[in-house]
Structures are given as C-alpha cells and as structure tokens.
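Quiz preparation item.
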C-alpha cells in the first residue's frame, strides 16, 4: 500500500430523522400494478463465500476529509471532493497513485462529463473545469437562484447541491439543489455554454438528488411526502406518516412519468440504476430508530428501520429482490456489466466490514470488506464507485481513498 499523508484524529456524529410508514404500497401509475407488501421485517444476510473478487491495490491519503468521488471516463483519474476550501477537490492519477492537482473549492457533489471534457463540482454554486488543463471555465448558475437569505459574496447561492449528473452525450448537466425548507429543485444547463435550459420542480426530492438514466431519456430520483393532520402553520398535530417513492421524469419536458411508491420506511440515502436502465436500487437508514409524538393524545410511537436494500424493475415498478443489511446504506453502485452491486454502509457490528459485494441476478452476498477505519471513524461510511470498465472499485471516506481490483 502506498501511504502519502497520515490523518489527524477525527470524530463524527451522524443523526437522522424521518417518520416511516409500516405498510408499503408499490404501484406504477401507467401499468395498474398495485400490491401491498409488509416492511420492517428483520432479515439476516447469508454468510459471504471465501472469495476475493475485490482486492485492495492502493491506499491514498489526504489531510482533508474526503466525501464523494467520480471516475474519469477513461479510468485514468479519480476526483474526490471535500468540504474544505483548501484542497477541496483532489484529482488522483490512478496508475501513478499520485495527487495530480487540487481545486480550492468545497464540494458536495462531483461528476466528469461522459466525453471527458469537463469536470463539474461544487456547492453554492457549482463550477466547471477543463479536464485537459484543469483550468476553471465558469459557474453554472440560474440567475433566479442568486436571491436568498443564505447568499453571500463567497456563496452567491443560498442553495447547496445534492447531486450532479450529465446526459450520456455530455451536452446537458442536471444539478439538484437543496432549497432550505422546500426540498430539492433541479436545473438543467447546457454544458458548452453554461446556459440554463430548464427548471424541473419536483416536490420532496430527497438527498439522493435527481440523475439521468443511461439512455438520457429520463431523470430518476427519490421523493418524500407526508400525510396526517397539521396546524394552519404546518406543524404536526397527529402522527405524520412519511412516504418515500422513486419518481421518474421525462428528461426533455420535465413531466413526471411514473412512480414507485413507498420504497422504504425511512428516507432513502442511496440510489443507483443499472447500466441498461432495467434495475433501480435503493438503500435507507437501516438500523435507525425514530420516536414521534401525537400532540393530541401525548402518546409516543417508536419505529425501528429494518429495511433491506431493494432492487426494483425500472419498467414496471415490481420489487425484484431484497438484500438484507443491518446498518444504514450511504452508497450503491452497479458494475458496468450489471453483474455486481456494491453497497457501502455502516460497518457490520461483528466484523466492521462496510463494503459489501452482491450478485445482482441471485441476490447472494459474495464478499465483505473492511474499510481501513480506526476507532475515531466508525461513524464514517465510504462512498463507492466502479471504474467505467468495471476492472476497479474506488471507495473514499474521511482521509482515505482505497482502490481495489475487481475480478470478473
């Protein structure tokens, strides 16, 4: 392993709050599918076989806390974000295992364009760079979004970023913004000019943001809405039932096409689509406990999230398979050939394994891997992504970027 920098001590605390629904209705508006499925059933994963499909080949370190990552289309570079201004974006040469350059910009999301020309990343606002020279090109900003109480000289937008996604031809970039108190809103920009193409308002989009399908015809994302009695000011009076769904929009018109309802009892934290757009994967705050109070009766309700990772048919909305986990899922990614799904989640209490590899066709757990954590990092979960050719897997969290080989 090649060690570059040694990290200092770090402590993290992750909290979550969302009120779940106990029975789930899965439906697709245009197909008439309608079925009731019990949720919250405790499940236990089968033990992984002693196979080594994924093997570590490099451990790279930085002094800034790494958050999310992206591969360049040719697999030569990995870009990793941080919320630090100094060295906020790090560009790594995979073969040389060296830091090539860094941009002084904190970032919540990052993505290369499919043609390899651009890198887009940032938060309040998003910026674009030329990959050949790593030089700054422009910010991507909707003029209407510059107004807000949270805006200042350093952050001209009051809205932070949830996700960035390019269309397959690289001509359009979709940016999901988090509006304080209003959920997520989407802006589509022309890559070559930075011109705003359209706005997509989708009430209740969650932190997974909205991303392009691989064929470029659709946008997917997870949404939430609540039902229950409220005061005129919007405060809950009785228990609020929170519902979470997958929304599918037309990428050209912005019109909503379909919905997969109530995919989890708590907020989806991870979302992925297979390369052929046939399967959608969702993961939630598994293992989290939520207490809520009925203001009329004073009674409390406690719900413990035991949801597995779920695989959905993208065309019909059918639930295809459940992959049992016992901790929160922060990252999901399909291998390019559709054979594997990798889930990065809270470490297994018994083994501290936080990277799990699944066989998509059978649902079998193939391998568990322990991310190089120490006692100060047990709350930090890596984000994982396969390389474009599927030969490698990268995982980043806190001060570590791990690169693994993948046997296919």
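Solution:
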């Amino acid at each position: 392993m090649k060690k570059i920098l040694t990290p200092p001590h770090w402590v993290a605390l992750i909290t979550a709050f969302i009120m779940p629904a106990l029975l789930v209705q899965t439906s697709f508006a245009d197909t008439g599918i309608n079925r009731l499925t019990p949720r919250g059933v405790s499940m236990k994963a089968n033990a992984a076989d002693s196979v080594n499909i994924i093997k570590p080949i490099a451990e790279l370190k930085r002094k800034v806390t790494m958050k999310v990552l992206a591969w360049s289309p040719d697999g030569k570079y990995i870009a990793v974000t941080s919320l630090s201004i100094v060295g906020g974006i790090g560009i790594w040469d995979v073969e040389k295992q060296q830091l090539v350059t860094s941009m002084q910009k904190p970032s919540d999301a990052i993505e290369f364009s499919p043609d390899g020309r651009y890198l887009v990343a940032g938060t309040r606002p998003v910026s674009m760079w030329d990959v050949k020279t790593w030089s700054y090109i422009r910010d991507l900003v909707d003029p209407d979004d510059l107004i807000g109480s949270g805006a200042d000289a350093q952050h001209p937008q009051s809205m932070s970023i949830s996700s960035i996604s390019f269309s397959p031809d690289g001509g359009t970039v979709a940016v999901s913004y988090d509006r304080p108190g209003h959920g997520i809103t989407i802006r589509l920009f022309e890559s070559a000019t930075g011109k705003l193409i359209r706005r997509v308002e989708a009430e209740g989009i969650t932190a997974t943001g909205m991303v392009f399908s691989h064929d470029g015809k659709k946008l997917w994302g997870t949404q939430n809405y609540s039902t229950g009695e409220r005061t005129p000011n919007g405060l809950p009076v009785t228990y609020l039932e929170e519902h979470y769904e997958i929304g599918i929009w037309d990428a050209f018109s912005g019109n909503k096409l379909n919905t997969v309802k109530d995919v989890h009892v708590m907020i989806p934290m991870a979302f992925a689509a297979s390369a052929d757009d046939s399967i959608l994967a969702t993961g939630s705050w598994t293992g989290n406990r939520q207490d809520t109070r009925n203001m009329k009766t004073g009674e409390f309700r406690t719900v413990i999230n035991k949801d597995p990772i779920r695989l959905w048919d993208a065309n019909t909305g059918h639930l295809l398979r459940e992959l049992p986990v016992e901790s929160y899922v922060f990252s999901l990614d399909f291998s390019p050939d559709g054979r594997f799904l990798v889930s990065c989640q809270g470490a297994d209490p018994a083994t501290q394994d936080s990277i799990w590899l699944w066989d998509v066709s059978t649902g079998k757990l193939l391998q568990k891997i322990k991310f190089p954590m120490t006692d100060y990092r047990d709350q930090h979960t890596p984000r994982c992504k396969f390389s474009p050719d599927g030969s490698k897997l990268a995982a980043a969290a806190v001060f570590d970027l791990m690169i693994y080989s993948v046997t296919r």
